[in-house]
Design brief:
By secondary structure, the protein is α/β, with parallel strands linked by helices. 51% of the residues lie in helices and 11% in strands. It binds NADP nicotinamide-adenine-dinucleotide phosphate.
Length: 302
């Protein structure tokens, strides 16, 4: 049985279009309605054909929905929810895919009092954006974290869980605040570090930009993939998960200072012990199927 028969996706970029493709692949009887604020995106989605219907307003998109999935940047969630509030059926479950969760839960609760709110965060993505970037297998074997409010209806939660399981995801349920702390260290801080390192390299005076690009395979290149991520999305993530990011950044700065001291005072053993521990973490990620063990991150070389 389908957990939801009429699914509305608001925001048809990488994640919204991937959800539509994955619904088509795994729940083909479900009807998909889409809306995006950008008319060019709406026209492109009609060409690509992964929605049954594309509407010109968020309200028109939700009138028949039993699941509404907000796939817009986190900073746009409050305004989007307000725009569709009048047309949202009482029986519809409203969810989202935002990368930070406490601010989203507050925004949805304020904009849609009494609505059936079950926020979600599929921990899967790429550095690409827009409706052409989506693909059906994005969520396969990845984790999707659900952060229901304390008063969430258990049956609604079960339906959203069943939906993501059918999409191929593994489910974890946690409190929104805890989610934000965990993701601050596993996702938000690594993005901040990548943005910093790529920015620093591009500002250097003694090393030319063409040298940075030429010798990028020394490590820099892998940071540039993360630092190519969508600027709007990531600005919103840092603005909306400020406290947790600042807390993790403080810990990170202290650890970086300790490394700086170890290098200055020739404490090679300290570096060796740390690098041994970090190598073991990489091994566990591969053992648990969360990355590819192929050489050079599975890159194809001609
Ligand atoms: P994306 O490819 O940039 O797509 C977002 C789409 O939403 C764009 O077409 C955007 O249009 C549209 N949009 C913005 N404001 C809107 C509004 N008020 N009403 C309707 N449409 C609106 O971004 P994405 O990567 O799919 O990210 C979407 C959400 O997924 C974000 O909340 C992000 O935190 C979350 N997420 C992303 C990843 C990832 O790796 N990318 C992973 C997990 C979760 P404009 O271009 O005109 O603004």
């Amino acid at each position: 049985m389908l957990p939801f028969a009429n699914i509305t996706i608001i925001g048809l970029g990488l994640i919204g279009s991937s959800i539509a493709h994955a619904i088509r692949a795994n729940m083909s009887a479900a009807r998909i309605t889409g809306y995006d604020q950008d008319p060019a995106v709406r026209a492109r989605v009609l060409e690509l054909g992964f929605c049954d219907d594309v509407t010109d307003s968020p309200g028109a998109a939700v009138t028949d929905a039993d699941l509404v999935m907000l796939c817009v940047p986190v900073g746009a969630i409050a305004a989007t929810a307000k725009e569709l509030a009048e047309d949202l059926p009482e029986s519809a479950v409203i969810s989202d895919v935002g990368s930070s969760k406490e601010s989203v839960l507050n925004a949805l609760t304020d904009a849609l009092p009494g609505a059936r709110i079950i926020p979600a965060h599929p921990v899967a993505g790429t550095e690409h954006s827009g409706p052409d970037a989506g693909f059906a297998t994005l969520f396969d074997g990845r984790w999707c974290i659900l952060t229901p409010p304390d008063n969430a209806d258990q049956a609604d939660l079960e339906r959203v869980k069943a939906f993501w399981e059918k999409m191929g995801a593994n489910i974890e349920i946690m409190d929104a605040r805890h989610h934000d702390l965990v993701l601050a260290v596993t996702s938000h801080l690594p993005h901040l570090i990548a943005y910093t390192i790529v920015g620093t390299a591009s500002d250097l005076e003694d090393v030319t930009r063409s040298e940075v690009i030429k010798y990028s395979a020394g490590g820099f290149r892998d940071f540039t993939r993360i630092a190519a991520s969508d600027p709007t999305m990531w600005r919103d993530v840092f603005m909306s998960n400020k406290d947790a990011v600042l807390e993790m950044l403080q810990r990170f700065s202290e650890d970086l200072t300790a490394l700086q001291r170890a290098i200055r005072w020739d404490k090679g053993d300290e570096l060796f012990d740390l690098f041994t521990k970090t190598r073991a973490i990489r091994r566990r990620i591969i053992e648990e199927g969360q990355d590819d063990a192929a050489p050079d991150f599975g890159r194809h070389h001609e």
